[in-house]
Each structure stands twice: as structure tokens, then as C-alpha cells.
Amino acid sequence: MELIYLDHAATSPMHPEVIKEMTKAFETIFGNPSSIHTAGRQARKVLDDARTTLARAIGAKDNEIIFTSGGTEADNSAIFGVSQALQSKGKHIITTQIEHHAVLHACEKLEKDGFEVTYLPVDESGRISIDTFKNALREDTILVTIMYGNNEVGTIQPIAEIGEILKDHQAIFHTDAVQAFGIERLNVEELKVDLLSVSSHKLNGPKGIGFLYQRTGTPLNATFLGGSQEKKRRAGTENVPAAVGFAKAVEIAQAEMESKRESYQNFRGLFLSILDEENIVYHVNGNRDNSLQHVLNISFKGMDVESFLVNLDMNNVYASSGSACTAGSIDPSHVLVAMFGSGAEELRNSIRFSFGLGLTEELVIEAAKRTAKIVQRLTN
Questions:
Q1: What PANTHER family does this protein's entry cite (predicted)?
Q2: Residue 51 belongs to what domain range?
């Protein structure tokens, strides 16, 4: 039975071209980018070229890109860096109840340190209300951190609208775009964000690298101390081969973005059509009008998520019940709790399928058929 990987929102396989570029870099580029000799300058050139590629992908300047070890570090650096830099101007932070734990746990830590955090609620589609946001905004708000697109249900937040509201406010605006980058066209000028977090492994690049966009002039204290790398904003010798792979993955993602979105929309339709043909009772979680097309979160009536996942795995369909970071936990998804309430049946019967590299219509149809058979067997 062929393996069908439908968990690309958790992590994605590396693109073959990325592997080639990284292998070449491992073989030929070994210098420290901070060294002034020829080997160091060669490494610096390659790193700078990668930085340019990443910056252009979001409409930023080269010097506004800070390499990190991934999305979690980028989120943490944004939240702790701004809170430390601006605490004399206020200690109020606004976020949402459905953020990734890299944001939520950072905010919880700041609450213990004396900051006040407002966690905005969402509706049943996972989207915040602009009016609720406006009511939460205060003179002493120093940071707003709201994700672009949710990693569990795919719902996209009104980031550009929030950016417009904040353009004359002291608050720094950060968005976690880890799940959206490579899927959505992102432009930091249009979004009016000051900070933006990205991770490589979500778009067929290597694990262990990401970046934080920092708009010029945005106050941000360094959270890593050591050398003067990344213009003294993030200490530590840069991972040059990973940066090369990251840049290649971004080049490919930018070139194929529209075709991939069309494919993912088609995959969603095919998957759901098979469920309809098999008379499966389900509903799609998330916002159909504002959603990341590669994420499909489905609630199946009468199912239990743990036995469901075990049976999917036994049938070589790899999916998820929520955030990859909590996959080993029996706690319900905090995203679904925020959307439906603590006693909702969706907490116990929802599965996330997510699309990406290597999938075909035939594989998606086959995965849907296997899923339907499991539902029929476990609910009859």
C-alpha cells in the first residue's frame, strides 16, 4: 500500500533542487562569513546572495532580514526583543487565542514578568473581529503579534487591516507567517508589519533555519548574546549551507506559487468530493473565504481522533490532529477550543490534512477513499 503524506503543514520534504544546492555548498563553502580571508569572503558572498533572495520575496531590504534557527526563534526574538526594548513605554501586548505555542508561551512568560497580555477571541471560523481588536488597543500597547494564517485550520487573519490601524500607533506589529510563506504572496509594505517570522522547513527547505524580518528603525533588543553576527542582532555563526537551501526553496516557491495554489484548491475539492460520494458526515473547520489552500481541517461526526489517527497510519495515510508541537499530547487543540468551546465535539473528531510536494490527484483521491473506509468502519 503506497504511503501518502498529508502532513505538509507540520513539515515538508526537501525539494530535490534544494538538496543539490546544499550539497554543493557543503562541498565548496566552508569558511566563516565573519572571516576576512578569501574563504570567509566566499561564504559571506553566498550568505548575502541568499539574504537578497529572501528579502525580495517579501518586498523587504536585505539588511532587514535576520537569519534564525527557525520560526520559533524568530517568534521569540520578536516578542522578547520588542517587550524589552519598549517596556518603558508600556507593558501591554495583544495577541490571539489561536497563535502557535511559540507565540503563546512567550506571551505567558512575559505575563509572569509583569506584562499584561490580551488574548483576542475568534469566531467559529477562527478569525478575529476588527472591532474587538480596536477595543483591545490601548495607549500603552507596545506589541501586537497576530499570525497571518493558522497552522491547524488555515484561517487567514486581516493583517493588512490591522497594519493600517496601527500605522500611527506606538505598538510594533509582528506577524507569524510561518505557515503562509511560500503559499501566499506576502509584501511587508502592503501588510504594514514591522516584524515577520518565517521558517524554511514548511516550504521544502531544510530544517533548522528561518528568518525574522525587522523593518528599519523597529526597536528590537537582541536575545542571543555573543558575536556581532547579523549586525549584532543575532549572535552565532550563520548556517551558510542551510541559508543556501532556504533561498533555493524560496526561489522555487515564488516561481510555482500560483500553480501550487490551484493544485491545492483542486486537491481540497477532490478530497471532499470523495467523502460526499461515500456519504460521509463531516464539516470543514476554518474560514472558506480566507484560508491557506494547503490546509484542510475536517471534523468527522462520531469519530475519535486517537483511533482515527492510528487507523490512518496503519493505512499509510499520514495526517495530524493539530499542531505538530503537541502531537504527542492528549490535550485538545487550543485552536479548536477557541473556535468551538471546551466541550465541543470538534475537539475529539477533527483531523488536519495538508498538501504539498509530491502529491498528485490520484494520491489525494486514494487518501480520501482510505479515509472514508476508516470512517465507515469505525462509525458503523
A1: CYSTEINE DESULFURASE (PTHR11601:SF34), CYSTEINE DESULFURYLASE FAMILY MEMBER (PTHR11601)
A2: 16-251
